[in-house]
Amino acid sequence: xxxxxxxxxxxxxxxxxxxxxxxxxxxxxxxxxxxxxxxxxxxxxxxxxxxxxxxxxxxxxxxxxxxxxxxxxxxxxxxxxxxxxxxxxxxxxxxxxxxxxxxxxxxxxxxxxxxxxxxxxxxxxxxxxxxxxxxxxxxxxxxxxxxxxxxxxxxxxxxxxxxxxxxxxxxxxxxxxxxxxxxxxxxxxxxxxxxxxxxxxxxxxxxxxxxxxxxxxxxxxxxxxxxxxxxxxxxxxxxxxxxxxxxxxxxxxxxxxxxxxxxxxxxxxxxxxxxxxxxxxxxxxxxxxxxxxxxxxxxxxxxxxxxxxxxxxxxxxxxxxxxxxxxxxxxxxxxxxxxxxxxxxxxxxxxxxxxxxxxxxxxxxxxxxxxxxxxxxxxxxxxxxxxxxxxxxxxxxxxxxxxxxxxxxxxxxxxxx
RNA sequence: GGAGGGAUGCCGGAGCGGACGAACGGGGCGGUCUUGAAAACCGCUGGGACGCGAGUCCCCGUGGGUUCGAAUCCCACUCCCUCCGCCA
Length: 417
Fold this sequence. Notes:
The chain is α+β, with helices and mostly antiparallel strands. The chain has two domains: 23-98; 114-413, 2-Layer Sandwich (BirA Bifunctional Protein, domain 2), CATH 3.30.930.10. 39% of the residues lie in helices and 21% in strands. The chain is built from twelve helices and 18 strands. Strand 6 (213-214) and strand 7 form a beta hairpin. Helix 3 (26-60) packs antiparallel against helix 4 (66-98) and helix 5 (134-140) packs across helix 12. The longest helix has 35 residues, at 26-60.
């Protein structure tokens, strides 16, 4: 949820929203709805004040005076009751419209869409493609069974098998261990959450089409651990000296991938269900930009230690999604496609989701909304995709990245005979 | 799944439908006293909306309802506890 007062008063704030390409007139509609709301708030509250005063007087009156005063208060009550539905309607409308406005893009974010990201740095070499692409390799190794996955659950589902499973848990162990050592609290969160949490975390209504819902129970399958992690301190006021609070969540993630027909259909690059280790920070408003850089640094070190060549981009305004004010993607070179593809990302939401979740900080200059940030520590499936190409040897075997070896009983995997 | 009990401020814990945003205790903050500290004593100590402001309004798990008036009565929901049943 955006800050309506700032939208009214701060032209830069409004400009940040406009850079995200919102529907024509939506901003003005929101402002108009909010103005209408405020007019009614003033009117209804004045009526309520009169009614409250009248009622209080009854309590102080003698029994003889009461009937007349009750009659008078009754009239005020009816007058109030006649206006209240208008206020409720105005509030609902203002909120409904405002929910569709995205968090403004930060000033440092480039203009444009998907193709306008700014490349910040490139690390490692753009190596040539190995004999097999990730999908063919996964099949050859007996790691990925998409055929039976599709038979059981439909397209974009797969059975992950054999060493790939061991690699998954090695990755998770390694990444969790590293981040716990940095002070992150490890969490296995619920993956089914209430619809309300989806809205408060900033995903509904804008991204609703990407989410699996279980209407009988009023629950949704999360697309990332970010959702339950952001709701962890819902309605709480955190002590300033307890920040930043950093959590690292492991969860399965479920995404409908609507609108991606025919895109990335090979292998497990893009599937409906995958596991992910996700970082999440609650930070003080004054230092959240530093926190974003820290998340990025952790992500880079993880990708680099896996031996993957990558580049860091700052996403353009139109590609940020509704909640992020700024987002870095780490894109890894995918040899079989001859281009960089997204592996991880991190974003600063500022107070956008904290406003709906009502998570605040107390201390210093009073009580303020916290800032929330999130970043991918390890998207397992996609990491396996890149490992399959970068650690595939000429003879069709697989070399285990150095950092994962302590968690596995083997250093390399030969192709099945 | 069945039967009961509960949810109040930072914490504990009161609260006959009318002066309750809320007694009392603890904690915290400030002050007096003291060479310093402790003790004692005094004061302060929730969040949010609207407004330039004075101020007004809302919040006692959540959402409705009854009433001139609800922390207090009614309904639904959520969560917690106890007992019974079932279960990986």
